[in-house]
UniProtKB/TrEMBL annotation:
<dbReference type="InterPro" id="IPR014716">
    <property type="entry name" value="Fibrinogen_a/b/g_C_1"/>
</dbReference>
<keyword id="KW-0106">Calcium</keyword>
<dbReference type="InterPro" id="IPR036056">
    <property type="entry name" value="Fibrinogen-like_C"/>
</dbReference>
<dbReference type="GO" id="GO:0046872">
    <property type="term" value="F:metal ion binding"/>
</dbReference>
<dbReference type="GO" id="GO:0005615">
    <property type="term" value="C:extracellular space"/>
</dbReference>
<keyword id="KW-0732">Signal</keyword>
<dbReference type="GO" id="GO:0070492">
    <property type="term" value="F:oligosaccharide binding"/>
</dbReference>
<keyword id="KW-0479">Metal-binding</keyword>
<keyword id="KW-0430">Lectin</keyword>
<protein>
    <recommendedName>
        <fullName>Apple domain-containing protein</fullName>
    </recommendedName>
</protein>
<feature type="signal peptide">
    <location>
        <begin position="1"/>
        <end position="22"/>
    </location>
</feature>
<keyword id="KW-1015">Disulfide bond</keyword>
């Protein structure tokens, strides 16, 4: 009897306390907030989950598995659903669970995967919703926390459809000498990665990442597809010379001699929304067998088998154009090593 009275008193305190205003509007049956838990434990008593969240200052909301046949999984989340218009993007339907927010917070979405990693080192790689611009729509990215120091935000196809796509990329792209590319194999869907860094001869030149634009660089051959993410290695004002050029792939130099000062130096990644055929420009099989077109892929490393795979919406048809005696290729032509698409991660 005493135990029941204590439980009733505690619940009454919750209802009457300062957290009440946030409690009712943010309660959802058969839903969970996925990917934001900093602590998990099991308890068949729902009240224990509520109290654990109440007692932990970091806990903004919790998920509880309350169905009679369940073990009572309790997940304490470091954020909650603040923007009602984004509720459907954040809360996942899950039978038997209840999601409840018990504290208000000005803004629960973080600005980038890098910020998420810094504030919550225990966060797992996977799809996260971030809010780079704070006053615009959030964006769903794949956060990579385990490779090359982590903190990389992998861009989805949808960034090319946003009018503020450039602003989103500018807000995320602060480490301008490190870009993480993931390659997908056509046969088994396995993922491999390579960290792209400047060639030693151009160690002081930042990369450029643009959206539907190639300002300062040269035009992609497949620009007729209209939507793309552009990774510029050397601006045309530097690449327009007879010099050794290229970049590093997982620490290994991939280079060529620019024989005619043609200033192409970029990767262009196309979501190919309308399923168009890529250009047949410079269909030279030599590019597909040797040189910079394949050297960079040869240094890719396998992503750990335990890592969560990225959905297709993060992988792009990819064009490479270098030189002047470097290469022109697109991922639909790639035979060597079996890759057929690329994803781009920035931090």
């Amino acid at each position: 009897m005493t135990d029941q009275l204590l439980r009733f008193t505690f619940l009454l305190a919750l209802i009457q306390g300062p957290i009440t205003l946030a409690l009712h509007p943010s309660t959802e049956n058969n839903h969970t907030l996925v990917g934001y838990a900093f602590k998990q434990f099991f308890s068949r008593d729902w009240l224990n989950c509520i109290q654990a969240c109440h007692d932990e200052s970091r806990c903004i909301s919790y998920n509880y598995e309350r169905s009679a046949s369940a073990d009572g999984l309790c997940e304490l989340n470091y954020c909650g659903v603040e923007e009602l218009s984004y509720r459907d993007r954040l809360l996942i339907y899950s039978t038997g669970f209840v999601y409840q927010q018990i504290r208000r917070r000005k803004h629960c979405l973080l600005k980038s995967c890098q910020e998420l990693k810094q504030k919550y080192p225990e966060a797992k790689s996977g799809i996260h919703t971030i809010d780079p611009l704070q006053k615009a729509r959030p964006i769903e990215v794949f956060c990579e926390f385990d490779i090359e120091g982590g903190g990389f935000s992998f861009l989805p196809h949808s960034v090319t459809n946003r009018l503020d796509g450039k602003a989103v990329v500018d807000a995320l792209f602060k480490d301008r000498k490190n870009v993480l590319l993931k390659l997908k194999k056509n046969v088994d869907g396995s993922e491999w990665y390579t960290l792209i860094q400047p060639h030693p001869n151009y160690a002081d030149i930042d990369f450029g990442v643009l959206v539907n634009n190639y300002s300062g660089y040269t035009e992609p051959i497949n620009v007729f597809m209209q939507k793309y993410v552009f990774l510029g290695i050397l601006p045309k004002s530097i690449a327009n010379k007879n010099t050794t050029q290229g970049f590093k792939s997982n620490g290994i130099i991939a280079e060529f001699w620019n024989c005619d000062a043609n200033p192409n130096s970029f990767f262009a990644l196309f979501p190919n929304h309308h399923h168009q055929l890529p250009s047949d420009y410079a269909k030279n099989l030599g590019f597909e067998n040797s040189g910079i077109a394949v050297n960079w892929r040869s240094h890719a490393k396998a992503v750990s088998s335990g890592s969560l795979k990225m959905p297709n919406k993060f992988f792009f048809l990819t064009e490479l154009h270098f030189g002047g005696c470097g290469c022109y290729t697109s991922s639909d032509r790639w035979k060597k090593f079996g890759y057929n698409a690329t994803a781009i991660g920035i931090r």
